[in-house]
Design a protein that fits this description.
This is DUF559 domain-containing protein. Helices cover 39% and strands 20% of the residues.
Length: 293
């Protein structure tokens, strides 16, 4: 029976430069051509069993970035903890305006001014700092998309990002950035919760408390709601696909029953309500808030 090819431990879990592995005696050029290794980019390989997710692509592209460039934009936000806006996007890279970058379908390059202190290292990769990532996203992306990503960057210091916007007020779209920064709330637990909160804001509905915990008169936790208006005992829940599982469905039913017994009105919204019927969705909540206040 043929033996399995040797897989060096240092190469089994992340992309690597093929030339480096050969120079260090870990592999030969013939070994690199075996099915054990998957070629991602020129001279960049990975073990064939590793999932090709966005983080892996960021790591692979980080191996070939020229000095002074870095992972930025939505990809940096993902590395800082935010969910991806779209499935399988290209890796976003920031580069100085005079830097040359080879074109590749897996890379989306934004040439810009990179200030001192705008870059750092995260998980061994050159990335834009939290503040610079927020600074770029809030100016360059649609408002809802940038807010989703900024909400997902839980370690973001909004004050530091606002200070960067103040110091660079002559840069394009800093006014839009400041508006987005004023809406950031790291308590949001999903992109659709952020969308639901934003449509309420745009409709003039009073600001809710994300992830609000409801307790009974003895102080015992009844449940946590996505968006809560405690002054009127009104809650809004986003019902994503994960709520359709049998066990989760049963837990949701028990929680909603307990909330209603405690005097709360609970709205359950779907993607259709949020994406296609935003006005009607906001009006339903606004009407109930007015009635109960």
């Amino acid at each position: 029976m043929p033996t399995s090819p040797r897989v060096p431990a240092s190469l089994a879990h992340a992309p690597f430069r093929g030339s480096t592995a050969v120079a260090e005696g870990l592999l030969t050029k013939t070994m690199l051509r075996s099915p054990v290794w998957r070629r991602l980019l020129p001279d960049v390989y990975t073990h064939h069993e590793l999932p090709l997710d966005h983080r892996l692509w960021c790591t692979a592209i980080g191996l070939i970035l020229p000095p002074g460039t870095a992972i930025g934009g939505p990809s940096a936000a993902h590395l800082w903890g935010a969910e991806l806006l779209h499935p399988d996007p290209p890796v976003s890279v920031v580069a100085p305006r005079d830097a040359w970058m080879n074109r590749h379908p897996r890379v989306s390059t934004h040439h810009t001014v990179i200030g001192e202190g705008d870059l750092t290292v995260l998980h061994g990769l050159p990335v834009t700092t939290l503040e610079r990532t927020a600074f770029d996203l809030g100016r360059r992306l649609a408002r809802v998309d940038s807010l989703i990503l900024l909400d997902g960057m839980s370690a973001l210091d909004v004050g530091a990002a606002a200070e960067m916007a103040r110091q660079r007020f002559r840069w394009p779209e800093t006014a839009r950035l400041r508006e987005v920064l004023g809406l950031v709330d790291s308590r949001a637990e999903s992109p659709m919760e952020t969308r639901l909160r934003l449509l309420m804001h745009d409709a003039g509905v009073p600001a809710p408390h994300p992830q609000f915990e409801v307790h009974d008169h003895r102080g015992r936790l009844i449940g946590r709601v996505d968006l809560g208006w405690p002054f009127a005992q009104v809650a809004a829940e986003y019902e994503g696909d994960h709520h359709r599982g049998r066990d989760q469905f049963r837990r949701d039913i028990a929680r909603y029953s307990a909330l209603r017994e405690a005097g709360w009105t609970v709205f359950q919204f779907t993607a259709n309500d949020v994406l296609r019927l935003p006005r009607q969705t906001a009006l339903r909540v606004a009407a109930e808030l007015a009635r109960r206040s």
